[in-house]
Amino acid sequence: MIRYIASRLLRAALTIALVVTFAFIVLRLSGDPATIILGPEAPPEAIEAFRHNWGLDRPVLVQYFDYFRAILRGDLGISMRDGRSAIELVGERIPATLALTIPALFLQLAIGIPAGVYAALHQGTAFDRTVMVSAVFGFAIPSFVLALALVLVFSVKLGWLPSGGRDSWMHAILPILTLGLGGAAALARFTRSAMLEVLGRPFIRTASAKGLPWAAVVRGHALPNAAIPTVTLVGFLVGSLIAGAVVVESVFSWPGVGRLLVVAVSNRDLAVVQCLLLLVAASMVTSNLIVDFLYGVLDPRLRQGARAGA
Amino acid sequence: MTDMLAPSVPAKPARRRWSLPWYVTASLFWVGLMLITAVFADLLMPHSFTALDLKYRLVAPFQSLAHPLGTDELGRDVLSRLIVSIRISLLIAFGATLISAVLGTTLGFLAAHFRGIVEQIVLVLADFQAAMPFLILALSVLAFFGNSLPLLVGLMGLYGWERYARIARGLAIAASAQGYATAVSQLGAKPGRVYLRHILPNIASTLIVSMTLVFPEVILLESGLSFLGLGVQPPMTSLGNMVGYGREYITRAPWIMLTPSVVIVLTTLAISLLGDWLRDRLDPTIR
């Protein structure tokens, strides 16, 4: 178990290091930020001073190590646009984003898992087919189309819910629905196939054959085994929630980190984009670590450490 | 559509045609329509897609013969813009899918051939790619490289390479354990020949199925970026772009955003249905 945890932690650190390197390569070397920020007509002295202030005139490798060290110290630079520290700018937006993504995650789990399990237990019924069809549609409908369709129906036509802003809890309903529904469909489809696979295994037949009631077979044997592959999907869900938040916050003018990212990208605000990239990487790495630990909890084979890193 | 796929036996085979499920026939029809639209876009456009017609702004669909799908806020013909958008979006998706398939397969083969450190590097990169939401990576790259169509295609071409790499690596390792690959190398074939002429044809069906499954995701990704105003740039237009600009007129002229939205949904739906169906027929082993 210790070896298992250690290898996962090492991998997490490696991912973060790769993201930092990626950020450095892409964000620093793709163009000269001095001319981008100051414009091509800026006087050469101003550009020189700017480059010196931001350390852009030193050798690339030196910049890279400085950059790494600064990040380890928690210094992520200052927004080139408004002069405040990038961490501060990003930090004050995080609660707004969590206010959408956490309820959306629970919505996904609350709809997706029961729907998938029920569909698998009643394979071939109308309910099962409905789940499969909505899963296919859930994949094919991009979040911005779903968001605009909800706005069109609930804000424009019915006038029940506001179409943007963050003034009351009513404003959060449509964004949460948009984020939650697509993922719920994917989760339902995945849970269904995980469940079907487990139901086809010999130990299920054995359990029923020894006289266990069907409900007990499902609860005691099928569900715990189907949970193992389903847990993997949580990492994927977190990733798609983050990407979804970028789009959904833009549609609903919700003042979260996703909208900040779009604005920072169009303003070419280096420090803020870097900071957001690292934040996303950190959340992905954390959620993957949680998935790995859940594996350890759910799967006794891993706990006994017979073969780590499976 | 089914007639074209039927084996050309001249007997009585009215009923012995390939029986395709109805949704596959419908998907093939839709994809065919989209391909024809993309290829013959110049001939099909009733107007130039940038032509302004300020007298006819925000005309609703089915109101005017000249503008069957209506016009936008500048009086530009929605149908013409839609046709050009389909061409651009499909072009980007095709280019990107090809790049990603070639890149991923090459890296997968390299990993399978050299093993050791090369394999580890490919696998770590693949894990990294799979762990980060691609939209976020793409946004950061686009912001700082500026934006152009070739760059956008190249960037989208990095999407999904890790899936081909994993498949190609796994299958190539399995194949080199089989007799035929060893036999050809014993006969003196260079590794390049063994991989391209002998192993690749044997794993092609699996790779093609993966391409069909990645393709709609690329369309969704590009349309998402363009919707945010960070993908295809005006005066060029793409499906996501049209939705993004049409969104401003959602109350007064919802058709501007609805028509491209419907095309995006139907196209991704059709291709992913085809992909699922192909996977079940050709290669049930991958998911």
From TrEMBL, chain A:
Top-level taxon of origin: Bacteria
Localization (cell): Cell membrane
Entry keyword set: Cell membrane, Membrane, Transmembrane, Transmembrane helix, Transport
Keyword Methyltransferase: no
Flavoprotein is among the record's keywords: no
Gene3D superfamilies with a match to the protein in the record: MetI-like
Topology in membrane: Multi-pass membrane protein
InterPro entries (UniProt xref): BPD_transp_1_N, MetI-like, MetI-like_sf
Annotated transmembrane regions: 12-31, 98-121, 133-156, 168-188, 226-251, 271-298
Domain ABC transmembrane type-1: start-end pairs: 94-295
Stretches assigned to coiled coil: none
Primary residence: membrane
Family note: Belongs to the binding-protein-dependent transport system permease family.
Name of protein: ABC transporter permease
TrEMBL record, chain B:
Residues in ABC transmembrane type-1 domain copies: 86-275
Membrane topology, record value: Multi-pass membrane protein
SUPFAM superfamilies xrefs: MetI-like (SSF161098)
Keywords: Cell membrane, Membrane, Transmembrane, Transmembrane helix, Transport
Entry-linked InterPro entries: BP-dependent_transpt_permease, MetI-like, MetI-like_sf
Any Pfam family hit: BPD_transp_1
Subcellular location: Cell membrane
Superkingdom of this protein's organism: Bacteria
Transmembrane spans: 20-45, 90-114, 134-159, 199-221, 255-278
Family annotation (PANTHER family): OLIGOPEPTIDE TRANSPORT SYSTEM PERMEASE PROTEIN APPC, PEPTIDE ABC TRANSPORTER PERMEASE PROTEIN
Family: Belongs to the binding-protein-dependent transport system permease family.
Designated name of the protein: ABC transporter permease
Source species: Pseudodonghicola flavimaris
